[in-house]
Specification:
With 207 residues, the protein is mostly beta strands. 10% of the residues lie in helices and 33% in strands. Strands 2-1-8-9-10-7-6-5 form an 8-stranded antiparallel β-sheet. The C terminus is likely disordered.
């Protein structure tokens, strides 16, 4: 954490707030638990007139063993239009970040640099319908992608172009009839298909 921010927290006239930034292809939402908060060229608000306000932030904790960090972030939209826009599943894997910041209680300006609490992506939205409409954004860190099975990833033209659209380097390459699996064991009964690393054989005559 920024040294000046740490020092300011020992003073009676400082506020501790959280800043949230959610970036999608359609919009960028910047919300603050401390009201109007400028940070460089960015402005964080207590309530976005279009998309609403922060409802609840969790206690951010690291994952355990093979689990990665997850977080549930709540946004309270002002109407059904905002609810539909926020809860759209096309925002899956969009970037969301949360910082812990210190404000000067007299000026309302940041002291030092905010400390990054969470950087992740939207996994899926969950609706809570009651006296108010809430959208709970279930989020995971980008490292969670490392735990996904990759049996579908193989050395082939279709997969190559799914990663690099329009790049036809494998379109006319021969010898790709066999599947080469990446970061996954070759399925039983396929007769191999993986490439072995180089380094020479043990039976080579070096004399």
């Amino acid at each position: 954490m920024d040294a000046s921010s740490v020092a300011a927290r020992k003073q009676p006239v400082s506020w501790i707030v959280q800043l949230l930034e959610w970036t999608t292809a359609d919009f960028t939402i910047r919300l603050s638990t401390g009201g109007f908060t400028p940070w460089g060229e960015k402005i964080f608000l207590a309530r976005d007139l279009t998309y609403g306000a922060l409802g609840e932030l969790p206690t951010f904790e690291d994952g355990i063993d093979s689990q990665t960090t997850r977080a549930s972030l709540t946004i309270i939209p002002p109407d059904q239009t905002a609810l539909a826009a926020i809860a759209d599943r096309k925002h899956k894997r969009s970037l969301i970040q949360v910082w812990d910041a210190t404000l000067d209680g007299d000026t309302g300006f940041l002291i030092g640099e905010p400390d990054l609490l969470f950087r992740g992506m939207i996994d899926f939205p969950r609706l809570v319908i009651g006296e108010t409409w809430e959208v709970v954004l279930e989020c995971a860190t980008e490292e969670a992608l490392l735990n996904e099975p990759n049996e579908d990833r193989r050395l082939s033209n279709p997969f190559h172009q799914s990663v690099w659209p329009g790049e036809t380097g494998l379109a006319y390459v021969t010898g790709l009839g066999r599947k080469v699996y990446w970061r996954a064991n070759t399925p039983a009964g396929t007769g191999g298909g993986g490439y072995s690393s180089g380094g020479g054989g043990n039976n080579a005559n070096l004399s």
